[in-house]
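Model: Ready when you are.
Researcher: Fold this.
Model:
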Amino acid sequence: MTVRENTISILVNNKPDVLARIAGTFSGRGFNIESISANITRNPEITNIIITTIGDQETVIKLEKQLNKLVDVLEVRDLTDVSSAQREMILVRVKVIASDRDRFTQIVDTHSWKIVSTDADYCILEVTGDRQGIEDALAILETIGMEDFVRTGVVALKRCPPQQIG
């Protein structure tokens, strides 16, 4: 079987210890959580947890079955092969030398990155995109003075079937 990155969406009751039980299920199966994002849905009593992990399809299916057995888990969906929008965000602190400011601004504009804050020597950028876009941005930013960054987990939303749009 092919080992690859998998994106799993888990709808749960918004209660204490649910995330800990989910993390325990992953570690108990020998899975590492590559990224995690969790927040309430339109209904504040329900949380959507998006987890990416590396594994083969057979093992991910077993993991889904274990997750579905947990108290307070309402739904588990593997979004890996489903048509979905998946994005990440990074905030990046870059040292900007006055003599390079024009080149820096051109790079930011070319890639449609957003300047969140700036001062005389530093700039904080917001970059959003798919996993490969984030990796590409980090490679570019490394060459122009990136000092630090923080990265969100993947957020994903299943696309609606065509008959449900409109």
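Researcher: Now this one.
Model:
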Amino acid sequence: MELGDLEWRGRPAVDLAALEQVARGRLDPAVYDYVAGGADSELTLADNLAAWDRVRLRPRVLRDVRQVDTATTLLGVPLPAPILVAPTGYHELVHPQAEEATAAGAAAAGSLMVVSTQANRSVEQVAAAAPGAPRWFQVYVHVDHGFTEELVGRAAAAGYSALVLTADLPVLGNRLRDLRNRLRFPPGMVLGNAVDRFGSTGEDVVAHASQFEAGLEPATIAWLARQSGLPVLVKGVLRGDDAEEFVAAGAAGIVVSNHGGRQLDGALAAADALPEVVAAVAGQVPVLVDGGVRRGTDVVKALSLGAGAVLVGRPVLWGLAAAGAEGVRQVLAGLQEELVRAMALCGATSLAALTPDLVTAPG
């Protein structure tokens, strides 16, 4: 499959299964496993996909759907569609231009990119690759809190408009594929934000994860907000009571996520956890969701269950591996086009029309 095959009659289309196979053919097997794999038996990895399939749509018909509007605003950022780029690390493993290419592709699609602490390019380099594009910064709090303070300050100075605190990695999940492959970074690959600290070549993923703080508490939310002057979303939430506590502690948003099935195997699928979290938050802050979103119909299901937006991780990396920035753009543009089509077929002309009665209950 060539890049042009991602388009049909000049319009973006998405065959993410085929795209994944293209990417797999271009990647070292250990790198493919790093991106595709999950923790332990990979039960949650599989269930993230299956859970969206368990949700069924109840479309309205005889509605005028000649004009469908997917525009939204998240924390003051206007977007053409509620489809964001999830934070994922080490993009240089799949493409030599790394996060710079991802940022350019996301900007071309009008999407918002959440840039990982574990990027191979610095916050400044990613910002320069897509000037003016919206971006948030995902935070792993390091044991060296001074380094984290420095890093979030740099992100704010570089134009990032929010922080996304990852809460579900106090220790690294048991990722058997990476252990079997003895995954190590290739010579010359560095962590863009920490070249002089943790970015030495040849280190494995576990070595970097050991730098993360395992003693985080709800008070961390306010601390990050003070240090950066930015709103803080909390990512990795699967429980309503956790979400309530984090909002009370100052969270500006909640991201329902199980880390793509890469942390606690057997954890709830994102689609199954979403309704409880939405009910607990009760509209106080936006609720976003990631994990297993592969189709425009998945986006409709997520929004109908109360999410304000979805984040997409692995498909973006498959696009990056296949065709760099243009591959990223086409993945996101294809999902946006699928969302428009799915909304029309559901009788919905705006995001406000995606209400709970459009879906069956998950689970």
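Researcher: Key takeaway?
Model: The two ends are 36 Å apart (CA to CA).
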